[in-house]
Amino acid sequence: MVRPNRAREVLRNGGVVFSSSVRLPAPGLCELLGFAGFDFVLLDCEHGAADAATIDSLVMGCHSGGTVPVVRVLKNDDPEPMMQVLDLGAQGVLIPHCRTADDAFRLKQAVAYPPAGIRGFGPGRAAKWGMIPTPDYLASIDETVLTIALVEDPEGIERATEIARVGLDVLWVGTSDLACALGVPGQPGHPRVMEAAGVVLRACQAAGIACGFPARDAAQAVWAREAGYRAIGYGCAEQYVMQTSRQFLREVGQGERSAT
Fold first, then answer.
1. Which of 47, 63, 97, 190 is catalytic?
2. CA-closest candidate to residue 229, choices 207, 206, 205
3. How far, in Å, CA of 229 to CA of 224, rounded?
4. Is 52 in contact with 80 (CB distance < 8 Å)?
5. Do 233 and 150 touch, CB atoms closer than 8 A?
6. 0.90 cut: is pTM over it?
7. How confident is residue 255, by pLDDT bands cut at 50, 70 and 90?
8. Contact 139, 200 (CB under 8 A)
9. Which of 42, 64, 181, 200 has the fewest CB atoms in 10 Å of its CB?
């Protein structure tokens, strides 16, 4: 039996999932976030330091911690990296800058085997290195892949309805990139950004799929859940270390020490 995808199952049943992310090549951070209780961990290949060998170990860290590994690939127009990370055992793929329905459809095609998609046959960890018979693997693996697209450009907001109709699992609002694109850089909570986020949320609700939102703190996460967002992200592991470390040093009177 292939490894189940708890996060996708929760979403398919109308529930809410929570995630965090990892940028540095540290499997232990993935394991820690899993033990903490996050439903999935985003392994960031767009802004982080991960290559294929690193993804291999980060995926094992996620599995060790009991969480779902989802890889954020560098580009949305190349299906090969999407297929590769799945062969390494990732259970989901997130594409950046989804601007059109074609972008979303390309992801949907890349992660599914024929006849539903174009994924090349090369199972590895997901098939337990050959322990799962090929017919059993093919009969169930497509249902365990979480598909997420970042909508973070004005073009994507304008086409949110048609993108949502493609039928991915989640459209995720990229508030930071949207803030830059809408002329309010560094203000992800600006009314223009939040208005755009609402457009994506309503499109997802109409299409019967989940909408994702990156919360800055617990209060905003509660707000997002109550507003109808069903995939909620919270920072990254490296950010937690920095924030907690700085808070401690300030409290002991070392907060003004400069970085070297």
1. 47
2. 205
3. 5
4. no
5. no
6. yes
7. low
8. no
9. 64
**Res. 227 pLDDT band, cuts 50 70 90:** very high
The contacts of residue 128 (CB under 8 Å, 6+ apart) are 2
Question: Is 47 assigned a catalytic role?
Answer: yes
Strand 17-22 and strand 210-215: pairing?
unpaired
Assign residue 97 a region: left if phi > 0, alpha if psi is -120 to 50, beta otherwise? left
Using CB atoms within 10 Å of the CB of residue 158, give its burial: 0 to 12 exposed, 13 to 18 middle, 19+ buried: middle
Sign of the CA dihedral running 208, 217, 29, 26: positive
Q: Which residues pair with 169 in a beta bridge?
A: none
Collapsed DSSP state (helix, strand, coil) of residue 249: helix
**pLDDT value, residue 254:** 80
CA dihedral sign, ordered 93, 94, 98, 104: positive
Q: What are phi and psi of 168, to 5 degrees?
A: -70, 170
- pLDDT bin (cut points 50, 70, 90) of residue 256 is low
What pLDDT, on the 0 to 100 scale, is given for residue 259?
54
Cα 228 to Cα 209: distance, rounded to the nearest angstrom: 11
Query: Which H or E run contains 214?
Result: strand 210-215
Chain centre distance of CA 230: 13
Distances (CA, A) of 47 to 43, 44, 75, 97, 223: 10, 6, 11, 13, 27
Distance of CA 257 to the CA centre of its chain: 35
Q: Determine the distance from the C-alpha atom of residue 71 to the mean position of all C-alpha atoms in its chain, rounded to a whole number.
A: 7
Amino acid, res. 159: R
Tokens of 223: 């707000």
Give CA angle at 165 (84, 205), nearest 5°. 110
> pLDDT grade, residue 207 (50/70/90)?
very high
Residue 143: both structure tokens together = 């249902």
